[in-house]
Write a structure and sequence with these properties.
The chain is mainly alpha-helical. The protein contains 7 helices and no strands.
């Protein structure tokens, strides 16, 4: 949604995404409190304890991904209608891959599918390649059009957030294997 708002320069949608981050933060703390209460009152052992510890980690990873969406929404709001060349293909592909990785990683976590959890992180290399391509385009654009450096530099934050999202998905897969 954040990338869609960026591509269409929909400031209203970006503002809504920005504000929804507070809801994600509240849910993170509620889940964390529930898990800690369960640990304190039930004193789980072995596999159950690993599951709860993994849930705490996944909870944190998801919250950080929400922050990345908020960051991309913030870029949209800062750009407004200003001219900024955007590596649209790379941003779109990075988003598609990272979101697909996330959905499958959560499925692997829920289903405790270790083979899927081991396979998904290999796709992070695709996101890294797209990041490197987009980075070079952005730098070249800065060199060619120094008057747009401020706007184009915001694209660096976008690709950084998308690249980090894929890294966070990899962490979720590691928690599945940990269980």
């Amino acid at each position: 949604s954040a990338v869609d708002s960026l591509k269409t320069r929909d400031a209203a949608a970006a503002k809504e995404i920005f504000q929804q981050d507070q809801v994600i933060n509240e849910k993170r703390f509620a889940i964390e409190n529930a898990i800690l209460t369960l640990m304190a009152t039930q004193q789980p052992m072995a596999r159950n304890l690993r599951m709860l510890a993994a849930m705490l980690e996944v909870n944190t990873e998801l919250e950080r991904m929400g922050d990345y969406g908020k960051g991309i929404a913030k870029v949209t709001m800062r750009l407004g209608n200003a001219e900024a060349n955007m590596p649209t293909f790379e941003i779109t592909k990075m988003t598609e891959i990272a979101v697909s990785m996330l959905h499958r990683a959560l499925t692997a976590f829920i289903d405790e599918n270790t083979s899927l959890a081991v396979a998904i992180p290999k796709e992070d290399d695709l996101v890294d390649e797209l990041f490197n391509t987009a980075y070079k385009k952005i730098v070249n654009d800065m060199i060619s059009h120094p008057e747009t450096i401020d706007q184009v530099n915001l694209m660096m934050w976008v690709i950084h957030n998308l690249e980090r999202m894929a890294d966070r998905v990899t962490n979720i897969c590691e928690r599945t294997v940990f269980i």
